[in-house]
Specification:
Layout (H helix, E strand, L loop, with lengths): L1 E5 L5 H10 L3 E5 L10 E4 L4 H11 L2 H9 L4 E4 L1 H6 E4 L10 E6 L9 E8 L3 E8 L3 E5 L4 E6 L2 E7 L2 E4 L10 H16 L6
Parallel strand pairs: 1-2, 1-3, 3-4, 4-12, 5-6
Antiparallel strand pairs: 6-9, 7-8, 10-11, 11-12
Bound molecules: glutamine (GLN).
Length: about 200
């Protein structure tokens, strides 16, 4: 298995470290040729406006859209979740737009702009969630599965092959979410063993 980590900007090294620790081969995605033969992709946190611009400039936006819309397992955290969102509140901008949710950027007030809290994630159990100038999901379409809420706000969802998280699981020291993501990548490999060709 080969997992791509979008490495245009932001916290990609932390995802690579966690994936490597649990025995996965990862590759940094910076240009279109890096998308070849991936079994899954991670969209890390960072600054979504910058990441969106770099996706355009690098020519990655359209081929990445094709892959994600075509079922490539995708783990998106924080700014990565913003890249996936179909709508960004109070903004005309969207990036990949493959996840039918409305996202609110920098949704936690000043004092709370960064915080850690432990809450249950469906199918995973209690998880220490690290929020850094995080968005939350203000609205999710009916067919989006809600995996976790904090103070009544949606912070984790699954929609087919796409997992979107407001928080940073790569910073929690707990690899359970990454392992679950890898199990989705493996399952897909069973169903489409020839997708590398
Ligand atoms: N505030 C950032 C944004 O809006 C996201 C923060 C993060 O990824 N930790 O893009």
């Amino acid at each position: 298995m080969k997992i791509g980590v979008l490495a245009l900007q932001g916290a990609f090294i932390e995802h690579e470290n966690m994936l490597t620790d649990i025995g996965t081969v990862c590759t940094e995605v910076r240009q279109v040729s890096d998308l070849q033969g991936l079994d899954g992709i991670v969209l890390p946190g960072g600054e979504s406006t910058v990441q969106g611009q770099l996706l355009q400039k690098s020519g990655l936006l359209a081929p990445l859209w094709d892959l994600i819309a075509g079922g490539l397992p995708t783990l998106a955290t924080c700014a990565g979740l913003i890249l996936l969102a179909q709508k960004i509140k109070d903004s005309p901008v969207t990036h990949l737009g493959t996840l039918p949710v409305t996202i609110k950027r920098n949704a936690y007030g000043r004092q709370l702009s960064s915080f850690v809290t432990e809450e249950p994630v469906k199918g995973i159990g209690n998880f220490s969630m690290v929020f850094i100038r995080a968005p939350y999901i203000e609205h999710a379409d009916m067919d989006v599965e809600i995996l976790a809420k904090v103070d009544g706000k949606i912070v984790a969802v699954k929609y087919g092959n796409q997992i979107g998280l407001s928080f940073h699981p790569e910073l929690s020291g707990n690899p359970k979410i990454h392992k679950w993501f890898l199990s989705l990548c493996e399952k897909r490999l069973d169903v489409y063993p020839l997708h590398h060709t």
